[in-house]
Amino acid sequence: MKQFIKIDFDGIDPEHGTPKPERVISGDPQFRTWNCDEAEGGIYAGMWEATPGKWRIAYDEWEFCHILSGRSIIAEDGGEEHHVAAGDSFTLRPGFRGTWEVLETTRKEYVIRL
């Protein structure tokens, strides 16, 4: 078993998806996900991209994000709006509830722990 995994998206066909219809607030957001690594215990690493739109989000997992391109607004229910763009890094913790609005197609690298 390899212990060093290079995160490389070449040759990986992305998974296509959308938010659940009942979560969409505006637009027609489309997702592409390149999952590069996963490990026992529910750990995933890869890249995700979304086109413009706004939808409700609810996190039961912990996620580290690093924005590669685009602009989005992540708003926590009853809390702040966070404007994120290329170069920004942040975590979303279990229990986070709010909205994600993509202003310009946004691409991020992620590490998720269930």
From TrEMBL:
Instruction: Give the matching CDD domains.
Output: cupin_TM1112-like
Its organism's taxonomic lineage begins at: Bacteria, Pseudomonadati, Pseudomonadota, Alphaproteobacteria, Hyphomicrobiales
Segments of this protein annotated with the region Disordered: 10-29
**UniProt biased composition (Basic and acidic residues):** 10-25
What is the official name of this protein in its record? Answer: Cupin
Q: Which organism is it from?
A: Phyllobacterium sophorae
**Pfam families assigned to the protein according to its UniProt record, in alphabetical order:** Cupin_3 (PF05899)
Residues in (S)-ureidoglycine aminohydrolase cupin domain copies: 39-110
